Amino acid sequence: xDTRTLxxxxxSTLGLGCMGMSPAYGEADRDEAIATVHAALxxxxxxxxxxxxxxxxxNELLVAEALRSVPRDAYQLSVKFGAQVxxxxxxxxxxARPIAVSTAVAYSLQRLGTDHLDVYRPARLDPTVPxxxxxxxxxxxxxxxxxxxxxxxxxxADTIRRAASVRPISDLQIEYSLASRGIEDGILGxxxxxxxxxxxxxxxxRGLISGHWTKSYGGQGDSRLSSPRxxxxxxxxxxxxxxxxxxxxxxxxxxxxQAAIVWVASRGAxxxxxxxxxxxxxxxxxxxxxEVTLTDDQLARIESAIPADRxxxxxxxxxxxxxxxxxx
Length: 328
Fold this sequence. Notes:
Domain NADP-dependent oxidoreductase: 14-305
GO molecular function: oxidoreductase activity
Organism: Mycolicibacterium madagascariense
GO cellular component, one term: cytoplasm
CATH superfamily: NADP-dependent oxidoreductase domain
Keywords: Oxidoreductase
Radius of gyration: 19 Å
Low-confidence stretches: none
Order of helices and strands: EEEHEHEEEHEHEHEHEHHEHHH
């Protein structure tokens, strides 16, 4: 697999998002998840993304188990921290105080069974803590050899500039897909001005535009069923857009998911799509996107199939949207 440079970090063209391997979208198969991580590494993916709050630490432990026999220089760990989650799974806020940064990284290093993290980033902006203080604390971890690169997640242009004034930033992790293009309104330009890359999550809109989602898809414990885009009339309207995309993908000889992934990857050599595959079957389909080359006209046809202003519903429930500095 080819590589791309994200600011201070060089990594694989695609990354693997591991959140869904913990019970965020309902129950997940542990053995299949571990096999999927191995298959991703075998295919040349080096960037693995997780968070200390995914499954309340379960995800980090799972990733550690999958990597137990893998040489440390064969992969890169990108870890988010700061989300405060209650026993019932409710989001209680974010803590990015310097003392919390030091505590969180200690637990992540222990759970992941490693002596360093390749990228460390606050999951969201803590409105009570200057971003300069948070980035400064991560910088001290870099000086101590515990972290290699500073990342950001879901923050706006002003916050990006303030963070970059403290330490070089490798990348901004933010949702970017045919269905979510808010990054194009200032954030992407700011990152490029400052030499900051993008790791794009949600490239399939959490499965909505994967070509596999139906009205009967999703089971108990699947958090997507409470998302505005997956409910009521919104879902009907969005699946109609996916049908249009399917027609275009069929004509181009690719799957719906591959069309969506290729479109995100085409937006710039400084963008690495994170694919959230939970099984080897879905991973194999996503990997196929790395082999696809489309013309500008073909990419334009993909883009026109899902006009951004036609997508129904916000990308998160109201309370989650309120926590996004990137949406302010």
